[in-house]
């Protein structure tokens, strides 16, 4: 293969998923609650796209709107370039999704469960062994569902979404409740699906969990877009070198550091994450230490950080976290271009 050869997933003109200005509010007893606020989402075709944000940031609501389960207040959405929900019937067979846990019969084998599911959705029975193999359960199809580990159960759910051979898979927090081994299995399964040419849109509130498998990501906070694009590009831009300092009063330390020109953001409890305040200027940890000491703040620990998405997220939402009760900051501009792109195979 030459370097000019087409990428494995040829770039198609349209996106697998897009939303523009998507908005959803829920009525509650305390009034209206904004779940999704003007969200623009761009999921390129092919690869794994991480849809990331903390609890309550609007991921499930967005996914439910895409699947026609919840009606948006305003904004537009497309699947494969077709406006939805208007044209959902035309594209629904090209999409497989896990939003809620599917119900399987505990006493039936995995194979029998999938056969029943296939019959229910009009998928050919011959697909059952194929999808079991695709999620790595080829050898275990004859086992009863109740004997499966949580990771295997989740892979069986994924197998169920593959019965109609969809191009796009949408998984809402598929690793919830799994142990590290189960999470690894699901990651491998998603990677395999993408490498076979499908598009996987996967949500998670654990940013770093998806960082390892995603080609591109969208990061949201409070229903708004915070960053989107290629994982490596976001890490390179947002995840600049940083030091984590442990101090008695992180808020006071952050204030001092900001005043002398550093860019502090909240770290784990009791710590502040500090970056260089000027683009292109390397961070000098000795200067961080000196600035704090000059103001009578003595640090108990200083650790250099390797960039990760969690850190990018924290820096993007720093204003919200630091100023409790402060008015919400305007959403920062996306870190990376919105054009669909795909990195080479990550694993
Ligand atoms: N049916 C509902 N009625 C009222 N409020 C809702 C409803 N569903 C979601 N919300 C609210 O909308 C906001 C977004 O919720 P959503 O479930 O979409 O977030 P999420 O990113 O999926 O969170 P998580 O990571 O916890 O799954 C939250 O404030 C939530 O409380
Ligand atoms: Mg959710």
Automatic annotation (TrEMBL):
Q: Where is this region: Disordered?
A: 324-347
The ABC transporter domain is annotated at: 17-247
**Has the keyword Nucleotide-binding been applied to this entry?**
yes
Report TM segments: none
Q: Which GO terms describe its molecular function?
A: ATP binding; ATP hydrolysis activity
Is the keyword Signal in the record? Answer: no
Q: Which InterPro entries match?
A: AAA+_ATPase, ABC_transporter-like_ATP-bd, ABC_transporter-like_CS, P-loop_NTPase
Alphabetized Gene3D superfamilies for the sequence: P-loop containing nucleotide triphosphate hydrolases (3.40.50.300)
Supply the alphabetized keyword list. Answer: ATP-binding, Nucleotide-binding, Transport
Pfam families documented for this protein: ABC_tran
Family assignment?
Belongs to the ABC transporter superfamily.
Which PANTHER family does the UniProt record give?
ABC TRANSPORTER, ATP-BINDING PROTEIN
> What is the name of the protein in this document?
ABC-2 type transport system ATP-binding protein
């Amino acid at each position: 293969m030459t370097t000019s050869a087409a990428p494995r997933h040829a770039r198609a003109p349209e996106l697998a998923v897009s939303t523009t200005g998507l908005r959803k509010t829920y009525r509650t007893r305390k009034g209206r609650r904004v779940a999704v606020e003007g969200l623009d989402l761009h999921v390129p075709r092919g690869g794994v796209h991480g849809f990331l944000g903390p609890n309550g940031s609007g991921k499930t609501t967005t996914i439910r709107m895409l699947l026609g389960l919840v009606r948006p207040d305003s904004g537009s959405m497309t699947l494969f370039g077709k406006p939805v929900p208007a044209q959902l019937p035309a594209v629904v067979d090209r999409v497989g999704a896990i939003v809620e846990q599917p119900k399987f019969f505990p006493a039936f084998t995995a194979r029998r469960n999938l056969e029943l599911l296939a019959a229910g959705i009009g998928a050919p029975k011959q697909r059952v062994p194929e999808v079991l193999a695709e999620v790595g359960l080829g050898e275990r199809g004859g086992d009863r569902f109740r004997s499966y580990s949580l990771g295997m159960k989740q892979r069986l759910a994924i197998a169920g979404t593959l019965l109609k051979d969809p191009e796009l898979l949408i998984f809402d927090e598929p690793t919830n409740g799994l142990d590290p081994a189960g999470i690894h299995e699901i990651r491998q399964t998603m990677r395999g699906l993408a490498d076979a040419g499908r598009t996987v849109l996967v949500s998670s509130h654990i940013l770093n969990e998806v960082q390892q498998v995603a080609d591109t990501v969208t990061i949201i906070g409070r229903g708004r877009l915070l960053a989107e694009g290629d994982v490596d590009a976001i890490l390179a831009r947002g995840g600049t070198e940083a030091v984590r300092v442990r101090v008695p009063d992180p808020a006071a330390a952050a204030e001092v550091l900001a005043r002398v020109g550093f860019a502090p953001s909240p770290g784990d409890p009791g710590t502040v994450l500090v970056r260089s305040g000027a683009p292109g200027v390397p961070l000098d940890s000795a200067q961080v230490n000196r600035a704090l000491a000059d103001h009578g703040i003595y640090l108990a620990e200083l650790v250099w950080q390797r960039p990760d998405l969690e850190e990018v997220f924290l820096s993007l939402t720093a204003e919200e976290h630091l100023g409790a009760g402060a008015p919400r900051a305007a959403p920062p501009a996306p870190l990376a271009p919105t054009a669909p792109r795909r990195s080479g195979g990550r694993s």
